[in-house]
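ok, trying the design again with the full structure, not the truncated one.
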C-alpha cells in the first residue's frame, strides 16, 4: 500500500473534499488513527464539500452526529466510536439501518472489530516524525470502479 503525505490540516481537509466527489448514500468510510492524526479533518473536508456551512463538530461525546439535507446533499452520519467499550453497543446505534440512505463516516472503527464493515473505504492516518500526516487507503471491491488507480 502506498502512503500519501498530507503536509498540513488544509491538505487533510482537501483530501476529504476530494472524497465528496466519489461518495454516495450506502457507503461507509472508516477513519483510523491516533488522537490528533486528522480523522476529523478528513470528515470536515468531506462534509464541507457536501454543502455543510460552518465547521463540523467532532462527534466524540454525541457518538453519532447526523447531517440531513438541505445542510448537505444527502444524509450523512458522522460516527465516533472512541467511547464504545463493547462492540455489542454498536447495534444500539442502528447504523446498519442508517446505511440504506446515508453515508457513514466512522472514526475509531477498530472499536467495532476488524470485520464490521468489510466493504468500507478504509483510511488510516498516522502522524509522521516531521509532523505531516501519512494516509494509507484500503480500497475494497465495492469502490474499485470509483477509485483512481
Amino acid at each position: 500500500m502506498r502512503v500519501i503525505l498530507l503536509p498540513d490540516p488544509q491538505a487533510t481537509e482537501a483530501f476529504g473534499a476530494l472524497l465528496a466527489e466519489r461518495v454516495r448514500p450506502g457507503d461507509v468510510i472508516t477513519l483510523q488513527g491516533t488522537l490528533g492524526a486528522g480523522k476529523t479533518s478528513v470528515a470536515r473536508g468531506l462534509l464541507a464539500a457536501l454543502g455543510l456551512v460552518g465547521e463540523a463538530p467532532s462527534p466524540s461525546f454525541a457518538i453519532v452526529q447526523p447531517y440531513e439535507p438541505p445542510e448537505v446533499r444527502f444524509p450523512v452520519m458522522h460516527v465516533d466510536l472512541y467511547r464504545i467499550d463493547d462492540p455489542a453497543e454498536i447495534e444500539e446505534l442502528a447504523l446498519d439501518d442508517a446505511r440504506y440512505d446515508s453515508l457513514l463516516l466512522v472514526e475509531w472503527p477498530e472499536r467495532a472489530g476488524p470485520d464490521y464493515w468489510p466493504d468500507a473505504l478504509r483510511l488510516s492516518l498516522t502522524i509522521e516524525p516531521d509532523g505531516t500526516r501519512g494516509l494509507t487507503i484500503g480500497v475494497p471491491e465495492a469502490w474499485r470502479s470509483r477509485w483512481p488507480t
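Keeping the full-length input from now on. The mean pLDDT is 90.
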